[in-house]
Structures are given as C-alpha cells and as structure tokens.
Amino acid sequence: MMTIPVNEPVITPEAKKYVNDALDTGWISSAGKYIGEFEKAFASYAGVQNGIATMNGTAALHLALVTVGVGHGDEVIVPNFTMIATAAAVLYTGATPVFVDAEPETFNIDVKKIEGKITKKTKAIMPVHIYGHSCDMDPILALAEKHDLFVIEDAAEAHGATYKGKKCGSMGDMGCFSFYGNKIVTTGEGGMVVTDDAALAGRARSLADLAHSVKKRFWHEELGFNYRMTNLQAAVGLGQMQQIDKFVAKKKWMAAEYEKRLKDVKELRLPITKPYAENVYWMYGVLVEKDFPMSKDAFRAALKEKGVDTRDFFYSTASQPLLKHLPSAKEKFPVSDMLAEHGMYLPSGLALTEKQIAYVCDTILSVA
Ligand SMILES: *Cc1c(COP(=O)(O)O)cnc(C)c1O
What we know:
Blueprint: H1 13-25, H2 33-45, E1 50-54, H3 57-67, E2 75-79, H4 85-92, E3 96-100, E4 122-125, H5 137-147, E5 150-154, E6 162-163, E7 166-167, E8 174-178, E9 191-195, H6 198-207, H7 231-241, H8 244-262, E10 268-269, E11 277-278, E12 284-288, H9 296-305, E13 311-312, H10 334-342, E14 343-346, H11 354-367
Parallel strand pairs: 2-3, 2-4, 4-5, 5-8
Antiparallel strand pairs: 1-9, 6-7, 6-11, 8-9, 10-12, 12-14, 13-14
Helix pairs in contact: 1-7, 2-7, 3-4, 3-6, 8-11
The chain binds pyridoxal-5'-phosphate.
Pyridoxal-5'-phosphate (PLP) binds near residues 57, 154, 156 and 180.
C-alpha cells in the first residue's frame, strides 16, 4: 500500500544554496539581497512592475486593502466560497465583507451577482482565483470602473494562471499572492503584493515596514505594520522561481493524468476550464455528485484506508461562527453550500509521481 499526502512540496537545489548563503553571510532578517531579487523575479513573472514581499499571504491581503484606503465604514465585496483569509483581511481594516455566492462550474465569484451588492459604502471588490482557475475578470473590471471601486485580486492559489493571456494578479489595482508550503511557489510562509501603480507600490512598501517617514527614519506620521519578509524566506523563494515553469507544467500534467484515468467515473465531476482561462490546478478538486455510489465522507474514508489523503472544499464563509452575525451572511448561498457538501480535492502536490496518480485513480475506480 502507498501513502500519498494531499500535498508534498518540491524544494529546488537553488533554494537550499541561497538559504545557506543567507545563513552563512548573516543576512537573516529583512535586509539582504534576496528580498529585492525575489520581488523583482516574482513581479516580473506575474507581469507587473512592482512587488512588495510580506511575511504571508494574509498580511499581503490586509496590506493591499489598507494601501488603497479601505477602512471603517467601508464595504468590500468578497466571494463566499474561499478560505477565511480573504474575509479576515477585510475585517482587520474595520470594513465589512459582503459575500457573493460562487458560480457552480469554476467555483469562483458569480460575476452576475456582484452588481446587486454594490452600495454607496462599497470601496473594493476582491476576486479570488479559486484552485488556480481565473475569475471572469472583464465584467469585474467593468463594474469597478463603472462604480469607481478598487479591485484587489486574491491570487494566492493562482501563480502562473492566466485570463485571456493576462496573468492572474496583474489585472486589478493590486494582486496578492501566498507562498505557503502548499502553494505553487513557496517560501515556507510568505506573500507578496504586486501592482503596476508606482504610488500604490510605494505606499504598500512603507506600510509593510512600520511607515517610517521618508524624511526621517523612526519618525511616524501614520500607522504601519511589520509585515516584512525575511531574507531567508526570499532566498527560498528566489530558488523556487528557478523552476516555476516546471512547477506550473507539472500541475497541468497532473490534471491531464487525473482526467485521463477518471473521466469515465460516473457522478464524479472533474474540474472544468473556461475558454478564457489557463488553469494551473493548484488543487485538483472534484465533486462527488448525488448519485455517486457512496457519500463523500464514506468515499474519503475509503480512500484514506488505502493511504490516499484528500481534503474537503472550503466551508461557506457566511456559515462560519465568526461571521454569521454579518448582515450579508444571512442570505442564502446555495452554490457555496453545494460545493462544501460535495467538493473534495485529490492529492495535488508538486512531488506527485505518475505511479502515485495511477494508484490514486486505481483506488478510486476500485471503491467507486
Ligand atoms: C493560501 C491562501 C491565502 C492566505 O495565504 P497565507 O500565506 O496562508 O496567509 C489567502 N487566500 C487564499 C484564497 C488562499 O488560498
């Protein structure tokens, strides 16, 4: 029997080399050459001018919101189907998240339902490119233009993904990435805000470093944060960037292998890719539909028994005890509820081998 974790990262030889260099030379905090080099390499990969590295992706989201001026009394439109960091970042600013249900095919924010949620208080929209599939950005950008809103992309799951040829994270006013251990580029923990707007970039850089006055260091006119990334994290990140094209190709290969082997399993819905998107399959998510021979829980338990680790999809954000008091959480989110009930993802790590995929699929075929 094999044991296959849901995620296992691949660490490049360059990451080890650079992090050892950072340790050997004593540049272990947030000064050191790897930070600038990683910011430049990643921003350029994401198709934007500026990158501001942060200690994690959640901090990147908060930083971007504060940078564009979101605060108390404002509303920010977020998808209901995402992980908690998206709404948490809004709450940190004192603003209120307003939830929009998912679209059933891509699991992304349903763009048809956004405009109805815009009020005089709305300040920004935060689309999240779920599991590496781009949101339908043109209608979102058009709404933002029409109602004078900022667009902050949560691209934490979408390194390298594109929308009509444009990189996820490069289309809004600011884009946010995570480099957590299971993300396509990892620094252990880490994040980055990217933007083409030099003024926003400068403001984000200052706010991430306690907002020292430009005229006088250790003099503060506004409230900043210590959200800095360390040189050690950046050294790992720069090393991981050496193989980013390989990593993205690996994710697509993984999806193709799963699809080839699972396409005939009835009532197991495989991921769909829209013509506008280049999907990077951060996680290979499937829906265990109503007429599947067993419940999702029984299916996951049967796989676990054979050594195959899986995960449930996100819970509906509006259903979280933390958030259910919010006015917008009182609405119905039937698609998010359906996804939470039927969705799960298969092992999707960068270290996955063909033998492991074959084993996962054979196991599925034997229990289904
Ligand atoms: C991973 C993730 C984040 C948060 O990133 P951290 O680096 O773990 O703080 C935010 N949003 C989404 C959609 C994510 O998947």
